[in-house]
Sequence to fold (386 residues):
Amino acid sequence: MSASCNQPSPTATSSPRTIRLVDTTLRDAAQSPGIVFSAQDRLAIANALAEIGIDEIEVGCPVMGDDEQAVIRQTLGMDLPCRITGWCRASVADLDAAASCGLRSVHVALPGSDLQIQTLGKSWTWVIETLHCLVDLARQHFDFVSVGLMDASRCDDASIVEFARHCEQLQIDRLRLADTVGLWNPMTAAHIAGLVREATSLPSIGVHCHNDLGMAVGNTLAALQAGATDADVTVLGLGERAGNAALEEVAVALAATTDIRTGIRREQLCPLCRQVAAACDRTIPPQKPIAGDGLFVHESGIHVHGVLRNPAAFEPFAPGSVGQSGRQIRVGSHSGRSGLTEALRAAGIPARGDEVSKLMVKVREEVARTRRSITPQQLAELYRSR
Fold:
């Protein structure tokens, strides 16, 4: 066997480029059952999103009524340094509501798949005719017009290209391809984004990925690498059913594995995640990528030995780079001599090698009895009783 064990380098684009992230926490995440943001929450989240460098905020659905419109107007009044967009159905009433709020950017969603079209009792001809009618109307009221093809993951290629070419003809500002029920995989997401990129000269191609099969982040990255320019995200991946592509995961994954750039201040991501979790009364799972409290907690002997010498041995990025407070060494059944020695040192207890070995036996007996990790106080007690 060769002594060489070189691994392939992370996938990179042919040349560095910058993409735009569109946060829809205040629209798609807010539609998730059980999530109710107060007006104050929404304004605070919008401000926090702007502070981390988000490019665009999908602020809500203006047609929902007076309360929704009041918050949208307040958000616009904050004069945030990012685009503020209202989400609309394929309806003149929705566009009127968006215009009445003072929005200058609008997204209009139309059904794409046969299933979605038939569910609405419409036809493909209706979709194309409505696209032309609504874009013409939107141009009269908005500076930025984005059009969404819903359920693009269940559309055939020919229909997607036809729709995209109509959007090109209408000179829309962005076409958003939606994986409405999360049925793409990274290969198909890349194929569709690349297909539209090659077939048109649209200025912006966006993707909106759902996480029903756990692939929203992977699909988003694949589409961006294949030529998409914009990607929808939500904080913590909150959204309908299994949620959406998580803002914090997409931003860090792009930085860690590609040459694609964003303007996101990644060191502010975890505070933002905690803010949104508190606003919607959700708990962040310990092993949630990027934001989980368990990401930098180490117990097993080989991991602890490695991170004590060089944290990069078992950590793909530093805690502070995403706003985490720091790493922890836990004492448990898989602890080795290095971890136990470090835990003793942190507790102010100097220990010789033979003492560590004897203490390790007691630690494992206690963990087996309690089925819990050992706290610093328990470790000190075990040391005194050795």
Notes: The chain has a mean pLDDT of 92.
